[in-house]
């Protein structure tokens, strides 16, 4: 079968690309060529910026596909462009949405594809919802063969799953643990979270490709395992061979004092308990099972990061921010303690 990926070298798509190449798919990637050095030799690259619609139209003029998947669309206008380019060139169009589009806060922590879509905290999620609505209208009105896929927190070999990190990735948190410095965990760390290894995600995604029963459907792909944030950080520290010095800080406080979009990524996502019901995926892909346990996957990721210095990108601004937050919390506790002594 023949497929085209728009993107194809990100955390989610890399595992799918590698597996499809192994399985002998006729796979094309359309991207700018910035991260193609590790691609399997069988993969064909159409090098262009997807936003250069005229150039892309020229590149795909004589091509047709069984599947086209866009991994890097975030707003409806980008999907309007995709529709113009591929409406007569594919038997299935797959859009990677986000499980953060599900209603926040949740009325029921068990999430199914029938859970309402609503996220007042995060513009990213609202844009994904708008994308889904646009595509489903095309499916209803024009018969455009759409499949919507909703990943949750998916990770690979390059970065560990974290609740709070800086703009330069996860390494600085690992470095703080290695240096025996305190590490921030949002909330009390007891909310349940679902992390999915990208190789497991790839199994579900590939099972939906070319699947006639997936047309017109929205499906999330996650592990069935749920762990607390305390467990996630404990696994990371254990893999590094260090004790975990955790400092628990209110998610609302962290969002208020950060110049990053923690309002969205925390209050609109990671601060909430999420447990996914994967029954629909398993009906569509009967042999799907996520086999990478959280402790196994995180340990493998950390081994990879420690063996690749280029992934150890320091983030002094985030490091200083962590110190400031922890100091502010300690000062507040100290002041409250003094006041209670006076009252006594």
In round numbers, the mean pLDDT is 94
Distance between termini? 76 Å
Q: What global shape is seen?
A: globular
CATH class of the domain at 92-331: Alpha Beta
Cα Rg? 22 Å
Would you identify the CATH architecture of the domain at 92-331?
Answer: 3-Layer(aba) Sandwich
- In what range is the share of β-strand residues? 15-25%
Annotation field: number of helices: 12
From the 3D structure, determine the CATH topology of the domain at 92-331: Rossmann fold
- What class would the helix/strand composition place it in? alpha/beta
Walkthrough of the structure:
It is built from 12 helices and 15 strands. The chain is an alpha/beta fold and 344 residues long. It has a domain at 92-331: NAD(P)-binding Rossmann-like Domain (Rossmann fold), CATH 3.40.50.720. The strands form 5 sheets. It has a 7-stranded parallel beta sheet, sandwiched between helices. Strands 6-15 form a two-stranded parallel ribbon. A two-stranded parallel sheet has the order 8-11. Helix 1 (11-23) links the parallel strand 1 and strand 2 (26-31). The longest helix is centred in the C-terminal third of the chain and has 28 residues, at 316-343. The protein is globular, with a radius of gyration of 22 Å. The chain starts with a strand and ends with a helix.
Concise structural overview:
This protein is of the alpha/beta class and 344 residues long.
